[in-house]
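2 proteins. here.
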Amino acid sequence: MSKKGLFFTFEGGEGAGKTTLIEGLAKKLATLDFSVVKTREPGGTKLGEHIRNILLDHSATMSICPRAELSLFLASRSQHVEEVIIPALEDGKIVLCDRFTESSLAYQGGARDLGIEKIAPICSYMAHDLIPSSVFYLDIDPKIGLQRRGKLSDRIESETLAFHQKIRQAFLYLAKQHPDRIQVFDAGKSCKEIFHEAFDSIADILAAHGLPI
């Protein structure tokens, strides 16, 4: 966490509702006169968006091995932190980021079998050792999440159900290992319920930093 701003990341499997939650929280915080930056991974910068196209292009004829996949995600993140996140935090803004380090640990460390503990130091280094103020993990049964998504258009969405189940298991493992900073939300609840739970949590964190709502 920056000395000035607050950094919140949002994690979950496909169809968990991260985008909807981020949009709702950003609008609410803006009405309370907080300066908010919404961003996503992979992406967030020109370089990151180019990398995103490579990583998610389902029609691509080239193969991407797990280590190369991780390296691309981390390259995007490193640029993202340097160019967008750190400057925003130094300006005292609240940053809401769709995916961050926990996604790499769950997707590549867990589902791609690279090993969560093995890649954790690399992920931390490439993220400039930046740790979110809090991680909001939206937990959902992969079958339900993929049904919500409907047509699966990108390379990672189109992986097998077993792959997505491994992602969920990895996220839950991480949440159990780091209960102090990873909060688990039941993504099976209504959007309204999840929003209120997440906003209450953010309000508590803001109050703890002398910014009561």
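next one coming up
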Amino acid sequence: MPRAKNRIASKARRKKILNRTKGYFGRRKNVWTVAKNTWEKGQLYAYRDRKNKKRTFRSLWITRINAGVREYGMSYSVFMGNLSKKGIELNRKTLADLAMNHPEAFKAIVDLVK
């Protein structure tokens, strides 16, 4: 059997992971291999979903702009095309906020674009 060395460092590594998995359910919080696998998978999900979050929000903004523009008899694609032709540089996040919270300001933009 190989000789184990440097217990202090290996215990610290395990303790670090087990501290990060506090609050998980069942063996995921206190059994080393299960906790390590769960934590590593969670890190992968966190990395992936930081990218997906951007996609999701863009999709939400587009939906809100489309809903706001449809009230004035336009489609989203026509609105965005005319917006760029007129040289109005507002991003989708701002337009979606205007469409939801400030309909009179959004109507003014739509009238400019028409």
